[in-house]
Design a protein that fits this description.
Helix content: 40-55%
Shape: globular
Largest sheet: 5 strands, parallel
CATH architecture: Alpha-Beta Barrel
Strand order of the largest sheet: 4-5-6-7-8
Strand content: 5-15%
Structural class: alpha/beta
CATH topology: TIM Barrel
Radius of gyration: 17 Å
CATH superfamily: Metal-dependent hydrolases
Number of strands: 8
Length: about 260
């Protein structure tokens, strides 16, 4: 069986409360060996850790999502910071800047993003970045920190990458992988053409469950067991085998997360 990793899934959300054990079973039956869980805010911490206790397939990350940032963001950051040194945390995320829904707190979003990137650098943890209508702002913050901290490269994932080829190259040059999910299966999806320009070594798979289900489940609840559908589309676009997509994207995850994704004792 081909082995896969879902690098971005919110299976701890309430949409899965009634059938999470079946969701886990389906994931394993479809080759999932690891599912990475990015945090959203202080309210999602307990459900995320609780899910990790149910099965060793799950690995938690810690971060404050940009759409959860408001005038009380400093208090939220304190709650997030209280957990980032937990030995089970494998990355800082989901963090970033989102100017699609609301631009009211853009200054606060940028500050919170930069604070959390520095937390990751201080702990040598990968960064999982959310950016929506905000590539320039995210990139500017990363370049600023890169210069200030005098680092060669970051490590992490640009979640649900939706930029153009030039932006993809900039991201990869900074040390990040491109997170590719269900959108790649959508009819006339631009990302399908864009990933033709990149090596499989630059790509990791994700679902963003329960959102952005791949075809033929578009519009329905997403789950990690749909990862092979995303891999199949990438194999088609890249004109390679499904086995090759599974092997390389899984190797990429271990490269990004280094020792943080070794089997649990």
């Amino acid at each position: 069986m081909i082995k896969y990793v879902d690098t971005h899934s919110h299976l701890y959300s309430e949409e899965f409360n009634e059938d999470i054990l079946l969701v886990i079973q389906r994931a394993k039956e479809n080759g999932l060996i690891k599912i990475l869980l990015p945090n959203i805010d202080s309210a999602s911490i307990e459900p995320m850790f609780s899910l990790c206790q149910k099965d060793d397939i799950f690995y938690p990350m810690m971060g404050l999502h940009p759409t959860s940032i408001d005038q009380n963001y400093k208090e939220e950051l304190k709650k997030i910071q209280a957990h980032i040194d937990d030995k089970s945390i494998i990355g800082i995320g989901e963090i970033g800047i989102d100017l699609y829904w609301d631009t009211t707190f853009i200054k606060e979003q940028i500050e919170a993003f930069e604070i959390q990137v520095i937390w990751a650098l201080e702990r040598d943890l990968p960064i999982i970045i959310h950016n929506r209508k905000s590539f320039d702002e995210v990139f500017a913050s990363l370049i600023k920190i890169k210069k200030e901290r005098r680092i060669n490269k970051f490590k992490g994932i640009f979640h649900s990458f939706s930029g153009d080829v030039n932006q993809g190259r900039k991201v990869i040059e900074l040390g990040f992988k491109l997170g590719i999910g269900g959108v790649v299966t959508f009819k006339n999806a631009k990302i399908a053409d864009i990933i033709k320009e990149f090596d499989l070594r630059d790509i990791v798979l994700e679902t963003d469950s329960p959102y952005l289900s791949p075809v033929p489940y578009r519009g329905k609840r997403n789950e990690s067991s749909y990862i092979p559908l995303i891999a199949e589309k990438i194999a088609e676009v890249k004109e390679t085998s499904l086995e090759e997509v599974g092997r390389i994207t899984t190797e990429n995850v271990f490269e990004v997360f280094s020792l943080y994704l070794q089997p649990k004792s």
